[in-house]
Amino acid sequence: MSELRFYGRDGGRVAIALSFSLDALLENYETVRRKMIRERHPDFTRTEWAYLIRFLEAGHLSEVFHRSFGPESGEGIPIGLLRPRERVGLWLPNNVSLLGPLAVVLISLTGAHLSVKIGSRGRDLCGAFVEYLASRSSPGPLAEWLRGRVSVAVFDRIDPRNAEMASSSDVRILFGGDEAAKGIEALSHPTSSRGFYFTHRVSEAWIEPSEASRPDTVESLVKIFSIYGQAGCTSPQRIMLVGGKREDAVDLARKMEMAWESAALTTVDQHQASQNFLGLQWARANGFESRIVGNNAALLVLAPAKISFAWSNLGIELQWGNLEDAISTAAPNLQTIGYALRDPFDTHYTAALARSQASRFVPLAQMHDFGPVWDGEEWWSQLFTRTSFGSG
Amino acid sequence: MSSWVSDTVVYGERDERAFLDRLTELNELHFRGCPAYASILGKVPRISSVEEAPFLHVGLFKRLRLITKGEGIVHGRIVRSSSTSGVASEITLDEESSRLQSLSSLRILEDFVGRETRPLLVLDGVASLRSREGLSARVLAAMSLKPFATEIFFVLKDASDAASLNEEQIRCALKQPGPLLVYGISWALWMAWANRTMPADIESDLRTRTITFVHSGGWKKLENARVDRADFERVLLTRAAPGSKVVDYYGLVEQVGMVYPMCEFGARHVPAWGDVLVRDPWTLAALPEGDGQLQLINTISRGAPYHNILTEDIGRLIPGPCPCGRRGRRFELIGRMPKAELRGCANV
């Protein structure tokens, strides 16, 4: 069954041609979601599973269309017709977390043929989730898409299947290192195809001292950092207390310490606990004030604004300085700035952002939210080709 | 100081007060002479038990070159660990500690391999001795057996190639009658000696010799090759005369001179000039029982603060006396601390 859906208003309306019923697809996802609430796939952590459950809500998935094309509207005269590109190739690295499953879900909303390449090392969350979806979905467009249009394969970066995927894909999406991205882009691919390469980026949190005293700020910080620590591209690599002093950092560290046990989303394994203790001693040997929180669960290092340093995977620097310090010491591959600021849209923040490489500026709690725009790229809307309608 | 090591029964009762005093003296020595150590500790520690003594994480020696300066401390060569991660630990030796460490390993090893001297065959290349990058932990381990050797034969042509056995060197060693001592890291001993065919003349000669095989190093590669300890020892002893034995010892480059051979009852015994604790990885509390991180303590390290190290090896203390008759603390080494997969995006 195919359908036309209309989005946008007031001269911006577009028609989208889908090869399936979107409502039926969303209903299929809801069926799976209800099962997910009662059971957890063992390969996923509780946090990851809870995130997936929220991600699959029909309202959230519908929002992907709205954010890309505007609110759903009734039939009317469109200015363009959008058709999904036929084939998408998705390259995932070994350690990619939820980004694989999340990208698969978003791509399913277009109905495109999807080939997924999984790294040959590390646990394959994407393949596991595709299998889980297939085993739990009711008859309908989701089951049909998974059965007929999705393939997941494990191979390494020198495998000839990379070239086959690149040459047959209308869209190439890669999460991975810079070298992997260059390698895929160098492969022969259709001239009309699109390539989206989400490579190594880092993120940070900007907090004003007055906001740092709010319990929800502290709780958000602990939650977003504790999931992946330094390994997550959307996890803060440092916390920048904008306009703050050492005393503010000490105070925030104390609050994070108190909040850690109740707010942290993961427990650390013994090796990470050991690495945090190592990081503590390493930082102190280098003259930095530092402290452990929880039972070696994380490491907090206090420093004036500087290029941040990863003392351990679950170690984070609490830095202080003015806005100029924040900009001048930000990482060149900055992706997301998560904020807790009184007025984040104040002109001086906008002007500062203009001088940074940040591609996302979002409230702290939204740092890990994955969506149709990523790293500043409107990748999801470009899974469609456009036929423009003109009056002349 | 050497009398502490030379005059004490290796595996006997320990004078706890004297041990604590030596540990306190070392803590203060390193606090005064090593700025990084002082920065980590913050203040001179006052301790009333071994458990309270401050310890450094073993990984610090991969990240920092820690040196303690002080009157009478003369630094010498640097010893580097073998590394699977690409980053080696570095320990700066000093004259007095080196002397104590040699004495320590001699006294420990003679308890397991006996005092007699015999040809020592080392499964390594002679070029390893001449490395400009400092002394490797592997060579240091082999050299700890030097006091038991009439002559040393390096029996690999290429240290990095276990297949490059130098058969002529073995024949030279076999010209000397009597027992033999063979040392190699566990994987090399398996690949270069146990799991290969020897020329018939060497094979038949070896079967008449009483051989003490000494090996150290991890079991990871052997586990991957599905070789367990029983197989390992059985195959080695097949190519040796009755009365031969295999001695597996545990040691770290960050604990030079302190080796922990496994006794015939599977325990590793702690010499009187050292101690071993087990700590909970999360709380760092000392655990009288159960598995945890091994903390290795010695009282013979003056040139750098490697006298009290928290390792990333997992072990447990074994209660009660050992049937082997050795006294003092003993423990079981379980293996390396497992690493969970780090999940992230693209940057690991």
Description:
- The complex is a heterodimer of chains A (392) and B (348).
- Chain A has 14 helices and 17 strands.
- The radius of gyration of chain A is 22 Å and the shape is globular.
- With 392 residues, chain A is α/β, with parallel strands linked by helices.
- In chain A, strands 12-13-14-11-10-15-16 form a seven-stranded mixed sheet, with helices on both faces. In chain A, strands 3-1-2-4-17 form a five-stranded mixed sheet, with helices on one face.
- The mean pLDDT of chain A is 93.
- Chain A is 39% helix and 23% strand.
- In chain B, the strands form three sheets. In chain B, strands 1, 11, 12, 13, 14 and 15 form a six-stranded mixed sheet that branches. In chain B, strands 6-4-7-8-9-10 form a six-stranded mixed sheet, with helices on both faces. In chain B, strands 3-2-5 form a three-stranded mixed sheet.
- Chain B is built from eleven helices and 15 strands.
- Chain B has two domains: 2-72 and 267-336, no CATH class; 104-250, Rossmann fold (3-Layer(aba) Sandwich).
- Helices cover 28% and strands 24% of the residues of chain B.
- Chain B is an alpha/beta fold and 348 residues long.
- Chain B starts with a helix and ends in a 12-residue tail after the last strand.
- At the A-B interface, helix 12 of A face helix 3 and strand 1 of B.
Q: How far apart are the first and last residues' alpha carbons of chain A, in Å? A: 33 Å
Oligomer: heterodimer
What is the CATH topology classification name of the largest domain in chain B? Rossmann fold
Classify the helix fraction of chain A into a percent range. 25-40%
What's the story with the biggest beta sheet of chain B? 6 strands, mixed
pLDDT below 50 for ≥5 consecutive residues: which ranges of chain B? none
Question: How far is it from the N-terminal to the C-terminal residue of chain B, by CA?
Answer: 47 Å
The helix/strand series of chain B, from N terminus to C terminus, equals HHHEHEEHEEHEHEHHEHHEEEEEEE
- Structural category of chain B: alpha/beta
* Percent range of helical residues of chain B: 25-40%
Strand fraction of chain A equals 15-25%
Record field, number of beta strands of chain A = 17
Strand content of chain B: 15-25%
Bulk shape of chain B: globular
Q: Biggest interface pair, residues each? A: A-B, 43 and 30 residues
Strand order of the largest sheet of chain A: 12-13-14-11-10-15-16
What's the mean pLDDT score of chain B? 91
**How is the biggest beta sheet of chain A arranged?**
7 strands, mixed
Radius of gyration of chain A: 22 Å
Label the CATH architecture of the largest domain in chain B: 3-Layer(aba) Sandwich
